[in-house]
Amino acid sequence: MDSIKSALDLLSIDHLLSEEERDIRDTVRKVVDDKVRPFVADWYEKGDLPARELAKEFGKLGLLGMHLEGYGCAGTSATAYGLACMELEAADSGLRSLVSVQGSLAMFAIWKFGLEEQKQEWLPGMASGELIGCFGLSEADYGSNPAGMITHAKRDGNDWVLNGSKMWITNGPIADVAVVWAQTEDGIRGFVVPTKTKGFQANVIHKKLSLRASVTGELVFTDLRLPEDAVLPGVVGLKGPMSSLNEARFGILFGTVGAARDCLQVATDYALSRIQFDRPIAAFQLTQEKLANMALEVQKGFLLAMHLGRLKDEEKLHPDQVSLGKLNNVRMALEVARTSRTILAANGVTFEYPVMRHANNLESVLTYEGTSEVHLLTIGRALTGIQAFK
């Protein structure tokens, strides 16, 4: 129905996209509709994801590390990557997490800071989806304060010996390679760690209430010996992991618009078909108020994402702006998911509809890759010039 379409696109925003960007968005949307939507509720219920099969499918499309140049990567614009994230997360946040961790965290770190030999060894296979990567930064006791990490690497002759653990690592239990950040005598350094290395262990985290269609694990390193050329030579300190996280946060600020859009679509369709008091609930003023407010916020979130995407494509995007976008759009999406659930009432808590699944996922997205509090303080620092983290 035209009324439904206009409710989801009140500002006629398609004209903001180039033909190539629309083609990429539409291609990803079709693949998600065909390969993911029919199955994702079952994956979520079972607490699993056929990540390797999906990675190969996404590799064929050029989605993995798609905004990187060379080594089998598609070399698209940042905005095109954001639009792909939007379509992935419209199905499930776990799907976007798979692609985001692969491309924006693990691949980006190797691409940006690695030796040419490291890039040649890992990036083509990761771009095709034949190899899976993960990113080891957060620890059980050091999430928002990664500078306090306990994991450490010490020199032993020409080798490095790695000890410690990382927690809440997406793709960890199925990864072929892990980019691991550790304390060294020179400061925090990144290491490219093949997961078959002796001393590497990955434990699956079960019984999650959120991001269930995602593979999450704990990484444990016990006297894990690495050669000298395992270190990422291009960076020392937190600049390395933080710049990678900014790449991933950029995908989130687009992706969460997709989750919100999906909730709004479902709520609008449901309100038009659900009959109470002899009329569709879409005819009641309070329901229309909810739909109108949600549509307003989704459109604003998309416009914000597009603005930041264009800034990134012009190499003018600042980390503070990424924090603003991530904070706003995750908040918005979570509120849209919750409000959509109220329109669906009891039906909204079933697997027949995705709104509660989106809401549960977004509870994790709200706090991973920077909690709301950290992003608020980042914005506060930008406004005042005062560091309030400590």
Strand arrangement within the widest β-sheet reads 2-3-7-6
CATH uppermost class of the largest domain: Mainly Alpha
User: Any idea what the CATH architecture of the largest domain is?
Assistant: Up-down Bundle
Low-confidence stretches: none
How do the strands and helices of this protein lay out in sequence?
Layout: H1 2-8, H2 19-35, H3 40-46, H4 51-61, H5 78-91, H6 93-113, H7 116-128, E1 133-136, E2 152-156, E3 159-170, E4 177-184, E5 187-194, E6 200-204, E7 216-227, H8 239-273, E8 275-276, E9 279-280, H9 285-313, H10 319-344, H11 355-365, H12 372-384
Parallel strand pairs: 1-4
Antiparallel strand pairs: 2-3, 3-7, 4-5, 6-7, 8-9
In short:
Helix 5 crosses helix 8 (239-273), helix 8 packs antiparallel against helix 9 (285-313) and helix 10 (319-344) packs across helix 12. The longest helix is centred in the middle third of the chain and has 35 residues, at 239-273.
Question: How does this structure look, described?
Answer:
- The mean pLDDT is 93.
- A four-stranded antiparallel sheet has the order 2-3-7-6, with helices on one face. Strands 1-4-5 form a three-stranded mixed sheet, with helices on one face. It has a two-stranded antiparallel sheet with strand order 8-9.
- The protein folds into three domains: 8-128, Butyryl-Coa Dehydrogenase, subunit A, domain 1 (Orthogonal Bundle), CATH 1.10.540.10; 133-230, Butyryl-CoA Dehydrogenase, subunit A, domain 2; 239-384, Up-down Bundle (Butyryl-CoA Dehydrogenase, subunit A, domain 3).
- The chain has helices at residues 2-8, 19-35, 40-46, 51-61, 78-91, 93-113, 116-128, 239-273, 285-313, 319-344, 355-365, 372-384; strands at 133-136, 152-156, 159-170, 177-184, 187-194, 200-204, 216-227, 275-276, 279-280.
- The radius of gyration is 21 Å and the shape is globular.
- Helices cover 52% and strands 15% of the residues.
- Helix 2 packs parallel to helix 5, helix 5 (78-91) runs antiparallel to helix 9 and helix 10 (319-344) packs antiparallel against helix 11 (355-365).
- The protein has twelve helices and nine strands.
- The relative contact order is 0.12.
- It has 390 residues and is an alpha+beta fold.
